[in-house]
User: Which sequence fits this backbone?
């Protein structure tokens, strides 16, 4: 089987939401000593980008987008440990994402992280219910370019603002781009927080990060 055929089959497995085949092809790529960066970019990333396009076009709905993102993440979990050292140098940038303290919702954030990885960004997902201080400290440790903070509850939104306040206190506002996400987030809230933008969905989040980093 040619490499192009494998890439095509991987893409199809993601678009068809066929996790069994997607995982089988990931294992085959590992066992055949294929260039795993090519496998990820030309196969899995291409597949999830297609899923995102179908979602934008109204052909797929949120459950399909979520399922595609989860399948790709499961495949990446298999592939990433086998990547050669130094591959991070081709990253488009480093993004730290988390759902703010007091909020346990993480589905949207997880999809955003998967889509960013599909477009070549190095993503650290801290999960849900994460204190603002921890998010900032981790972003400093990983030399992140972007901090993404999600909040689905109006009662936890103020934690997003706290991120900016901490950065201001530490004279780090110029060091990071901060983007916000979550159903209650609006342009006026972003302006009030002095953040750098927000996205209503995973596709827009990728576009936003790329524009902020001039990619």
Assistant:
């Amino acid at each position: 089987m040619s490499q192009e055929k494998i890439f095509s089959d991987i893409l199809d497995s993601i678009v068809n939401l066929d996790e069994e085949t997607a995982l089988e092809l990931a294992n085959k790529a590992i066992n055949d000593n294929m260039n795993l960066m090519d496998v990820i970019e030309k196969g899995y990333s291409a597949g999830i980008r297609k899923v995102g396009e179908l979602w934008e076009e109204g052909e797929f709905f949120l459950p399909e987008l979520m399922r595609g993102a989860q399948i790709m993440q499961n495949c990446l979990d298999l592939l990433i440990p086998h990547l050669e050292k130094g591959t991070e140098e081709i990253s488009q940038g480093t993004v730290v994402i988390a759902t703010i303290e007091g909020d346990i919702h993480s589905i949207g954030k997880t999809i955003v992280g998967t889509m960013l990885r599909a477009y070549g960004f190095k993503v650290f997902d801290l999960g849900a219910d994460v204190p603002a201080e921890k998010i900032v400290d981790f972003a400093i440790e990983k030399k992140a370019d972007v901090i993404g903070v999600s909040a689905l509850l109006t009662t936890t939104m103020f934690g997003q603002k706290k991120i900016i306040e901490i950065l201001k206190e530490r004279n780090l506002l110029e060091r990071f781009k901060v983007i916000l996400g979550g159903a209650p987030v609006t342009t006026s809230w972003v302006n009030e927080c002095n953040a750098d933008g927000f996205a209503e969905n995973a596709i827009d989040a990728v576009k936003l990060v790329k524009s902020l980093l001039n990619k």
